[in-house]
């Protein structure tokens, strides 16, 4: 929300400056990227540099922090403080523009225009409590929230009088909520999740002290249902709570929901002995528009679905949507007199702005708009994968996905410049609607140019990534 607002009034002067169309990053005195903290380690008596960045609590950030200082007595007269703060913010805004332009690694659609909502930033909009029960706090946006929830319930085919849900603070909160319902429905249930599930699933298992079984994955990143079956057969006496990934974080793999259900049925788990939560944080809103994707629908025996609002949809603040069956929510909720509402959410206070942003985008784009964007993302992802391969760089793109996985660039500076997410030997780009062909070209050209300097003797040798992505996707000397 960009607005220049000096005084509180309902007549707001929202001076929303659009981002320049063709933004020239060289024109900006951008903050230099913080230096890479070099890690040395000793191997065979030699000091060598360690891969990646070491994570040290409380060390990385303090050198760059913007200190809070006490106002001087005469600041109000001189206006110096105001001017100082304005200059800090202006510089920060410039760096945001620059960092937004060079972002490829995280699945955030950074292309949106919510200028019309700038006028709302003066209100402390809070939807605390249950979306369907009005609390005594009146500055809320439940009317928008429930409208958005209805839209998602329809998308996932659950009747208005049969669903419950809320707008969460993020995809993680949806997962925490979905797994919690599973646990409340089956207090002695075992949580099954593929190894490549998002870390929030394993966090839920720790928080709720649940027994958790990690299931192997195929090389694509999908859950391996043969292994799943083995594990189920060993634990037939306990109900199963399953996390199904609608897009895994690193490889963008979509678990085969139908096969998961079939596996449960074949091992003797009747529908009243399992609970499925679908983690759609990444692709929950993309899969409905992909022809061959296994359909996520409450017509199948699933208990809940969640999605992140700031990923594919795009939103200035993190948010998400969680939808479940109304019948489950009573197991979870408690009445709270102080709120004159019911407590069935993970958080207490909830961001009341987020539902309005989601409502605004859904209205603006609608089904057709999303379908077009999904098609564009898949097309551009293929373009990126093909060009990487053509340049001799090992790369993989799952069929139902816009996440292009490839060999990890050997230079941390480059990784940080493009804000790539890395894990082990691989990195990825998640092609979101704001990632245009031009941007991909810039990235590719720079990658190819830099890459020639990363290997000694000018000899290009691709690292082997067959273990991560399979031999077919590897471009190393043995596999190409
Ligand atoms: C991003 C992501 C999450 C977590 O979502 P947040 O909104 O970042 O909390 C969960 N699962 C998957 C598969 C994700 O990609």
Bound molecules: pyridoxal-5'-phosphate
Radius of gyration: 24 Å
Say which CATH homologous superfamily of the largest domain is assigned: Type I PLP-dependent aspartate aminotransferase-like (Major domain)
The number of helical elements comes to 12
What is the helix fraction of residues, given as a range? 25-40%
The total tally of domains equals 2
Please describe the biggest sheet, giving its number of strands, its sense, and whether it closes into a barrel.
7 strands, mixed
Determine the strand fraction and express it as a percent band: 5-15%
Order of helices and strands: EEHHHEHEHEHEHEEEHEEHEEHEEHH
In the sheet with the most strands, the strands line up as: 3-9-8-7-6-4-5
Structural class: alpha/beta
Query: Could you say what the CATH architecture of the largest domain is?
Result: 3-Layer(aba) Sandwich
Q: List low-confidence stretches.
A: 1-16, 22-30
Shape: globular
